[in-house]
Amino acid sequence: MFIVEGNIGAGKSTFLTLVQQALPHISIAQEPVNNWQQQVAGNSLLQQFYEDPHRWAYTLETYTMTCRVLDHLREQQTTTCIKLMERSIYSGHYCFAKNGYHSGVLSELEWVVYKKWFDFLIPGKCSKPKGFIYLQTDPIIAHQRMLKRSRSAESSVSFEYLQQIHSSHEDFLIHKKEVHPELHDVPVLVLDCNEEFEHNSEVFNAHLKSIEAFMFKAL
68: closest CA among 15, 142, 121? Predict the structure, then answer.
């Protein structure tokens, strides 16, 4: 199992769709974002979080962790093909929940409870991935892409928040700052995704070659 990580607006879903078309033998599992965008009382959980993070951060983070753990457990049971997953329990913890704690939207108690669940599941239940593929994107570019796709749930997302999430991804995947010891030796492929790749076959094919070489080496 390989995991594709990156900031909001990095282009993960588009990237995985293109990979699936180019490499049909690879199994793609995209982030189940619809699970937390479903309408409840007139709003999605994701939109409620963006509008009132202090109220909804813990609810959102525990729910997304539950969804990602279930997906991870399901995917790790099958070993018949190469798998690419969009986002993970790891970025959920090290990038989003941890940022929530440091920015003050998760209380000390909420963070302690959240970490207890994470420490129980990792590495006890979820096997570590073969590698991470990091779509590294400047927050300015990510913000432009986010505005362009204009998802209603993201209308309250600030540029400052994207900067925070970018820094969290850098700490997690590049510097491996305060990550679980079992993740230290998991290789990371960093792809510069500042340049548009959806309609630029030269750029995308270069990324594709890097991915194939990375997977071959890691398997």
Answer: 121
Name, in order, each residue with C-beta under 8 angstroms of 10's C-beta and a sequence gap of 6 or more. Answer: 135, 136, 137, 142, 145, 193
pLDDT at 202: 95
Cβ atoms 162, 7 nearer than 8 A: yes
Q: DSSP alpha helices (H): ranges in the chain? A: 12-22, 34-37, 45-51, 53-77, 89-91, 98-102, 108-121, 139-149, 159-169, 201-218
Q: How far apart are the first and last CA of the chain?
A: 9
What is the pLDDT, as a whole number, of residue 42? 46
CATH superfamily for domain 2-218: P-loop containing nucleotide triphosphate hydrolases (3.40.50.300)
Residue 181: asked if its preceding bond is cis (omega within 30°), the reply is no
Number of H helices, E strands in the chain: 10, 7
Give the whole-number percent of the chain exceeding pLDDT 70: 94
- What pTM value is reported for the model? 0.91
Query: For residue range 161-204, what is the model confidence (pLDDT) as tens digits?
Result: 999 999 999 999 999 999 989 899 999 999 999 999 999 999 99
Residue ranges covered by each domain of the chain = 2-218
Residues 6+ apart with CB under 8 A from 200: none
Residue ranges, the chain, pLDDT below 70: 32-43, 79-80
| Amino acid in position 152 | S
Residues forming the active site: 86
Tokens of 159: 């540029």
